[in-house]
Every structure is written in C-alpha cells, then in structure tokens.
Amino acid sequence: MKVLKITGKILAGLVFIIAAGIIYVKAALPNTGPAPVIKIERTAARIERGKYLANHVTVCMDCHSTRDWSQYAGPLTGALGGGGEEFNQTMGFPGKFYAPNITPYTLASWTDGEIFRAVTTGVNKSGKALFPVMAYHRFGQLDKEDIYSVIAYIRELPPLKKEIPKSEPDFPVNILINTMPQKASFENRPSETDQLAYGKYLITATGCVDCHSKTEKGSVIPGTEFGGGMEFAGPNGIIRSPNITMHKTGIGNWTKEAFVSRFKAYTDSSYVPHQVTADEINTPMPWVMYSGMKEQDIAAIYTYLSTVKPIDHQVVRMEKKK
User: What are residue 17's phi and psi, to 5 degrees?
Assistant: First the structure.
C-alpha cells in the first residue's frame, strides 16, 4: 500500500507539472514583444523593391495567391494576395493550415507594425502564434528595409473580398505552436557587388534550404542542408527536391551560366507553358516566379552554393503511385 501511495503521489506530481507547463505555454507564449509602432512611407522605390521581392525572391505570392496546377510549376493565375492555399496532413503537415488573405481587404485594420511583427516573428495582430509555413524565422534575419518594402507593396494590392478558413493544427501542435515564434535578429543587406555575402542573404530570403534538404517534423535535419530529398506528395505520386550542392550527384557539373539559364528559361519569349497531363507529377517549385529574379541575383546564389559543403546524395526525383 505504501508503494501505491508513493506511486500515486509521483503520478499526481507529474500530472501537475504537465498541466502547469501547458497552462504556461498557452497563457504566456508566444512572447516576441509588442508590435512596433511604425508608419512605413510608401515610396515608389519601396513599392518597386517590395514587388520584386514578394513576386520573385521571398515569393510571398507563391502561397498567398492562386496557382494554375494544370501548367508545369503552377504559375500564378492572378488574384494576387487573396490567399487560400491549403497545407494539410496529406502533405505532411500537422493539421490544416491556410495562407491568409494579405490584401487590404484583410490587412486594412492592421497597423504596419502588426504586419511587420507577423512577418518577422510569427505573431499575428491578436497575439496568436502562426505556424511556420510562412518562414518568419528567415524573414526575421533580413534587412528591416526589405521587410518595409514588402509591406509597402502589399498595401498597394487591390483588395480582394475573399474569406479564408481558420487554420486547424492537430494535437499537440495546437499547444506547441506557441513555442515556435521567436524574436527577429535583423541584418543589413550586403552590397550586391559582394556576390558571396549577397548570395547568402538571398538564400535566406528565398528559403532554398527549406525545401532542398531532408526534414523531420517540419525541421531541416542537420547535415542534409541543400542535399535535397524533401518529399512533396501529390495526387499521382511523390516528387523529391534535387540536390543543389556542388557534388556530382547535385549541380557539381553545372556552370554559373547554366544555373542562371535554368531559371531564366521561363522568361524567354520562346517559352511555351507545358500543360500537365492527368497522369503526370507536377513540381511545387515556382519556376515562373523565381525566373523573374535578376540574373546577377541568381548568379550570387550560385556563388554562395559553391561554398556549401558538397553532399553525396543521388535523389530519386519521382515515384508514381502504383
């Protein structure tokens, strides 16, 4: 009986600790600080820079718009910023997450500071945590001025009256999500003449590592960075991201010119969009969006990738459903 009493007290203590931990996480977190009090001047230069970033580098419009999956790489169909793209359990996500409407229809009631905090720390207007489908961990490492430019641009988008469902994280992510936001650690944008430093900055902005690595429970597995292998499930099978390190199983045989040309092919006047047949596996890579990057920016990314540790990883790119 004495042993049972002791065991009971231990279990009760554990239950109390767990309950206290859950209450703390739900009540005290996230805690990235208040939204800054800022008013971003919408200059022509900022709007143009923001348009470039949101459509071709940080590719905000990739998720916050509608893509035409009947064509290769799912180019945008218009309705910029209207949101609605779903990320769910069949795609490996712990719940159902929806890209919100980021046009003035939704954001008119948000201050510039509230948008800034959401984009760079993962906490929304009401103080709730955002699941890092949007890579606020990366955006919080960029130059504040670039974030200001993106905000200036999305403030200029035509308002789209489109209601988006609320995201529904599964248990226990609906609790753990509060631990995910983190304070930003901004850095100055390097000079474009410093191709290595600027390439590293662009890699952070584009998020190449997020997809071109192996992941587990939504996090990149250390040591697999840029080596490819992340799986994307589709209706006809699985497609995996390629190895983009300078190993022969990756892009080790590619010249800088070939790398740039691979991206710019989609802006060539002779390019004809490929219509994806019912039995084909499409790619989630937003080639058309990234093809709008300046050639020197794509070249800078190549320069940085040239310094990344080569990984011997031959990726089986596609597996069709049997």
Answer: -65, -45
| Threshold 0.90, pTM exceeds | yes
Nearest to 215 by CA among 135, 281, 298: 135
Intra-chain end-to-end CA distance of the chain, in Å: 58
State how far Cα 135 lies from the chain centre. 4
Over residues 162-197, the pLDDT tens digits come to 999 999 999 999 999 999 999 999 999 999 999 999
Q: Phi, psi (5° rounding) for residue 123? A: -125, 125
Determine whether 45 is exposed, middle or buried from the number of CB atoms within 10 Å of its CB (0-12, 13-18, 19+).
Answer: exposed
Contact 213, 226 (CB under 8 A): yes
Could you read off the pLDDT of 223-232 as tens digits, one per residue?
999 999 999 9
Q: Where are the alpha helices (DSSP H) in 29-99?
A: 44-56, 60-63
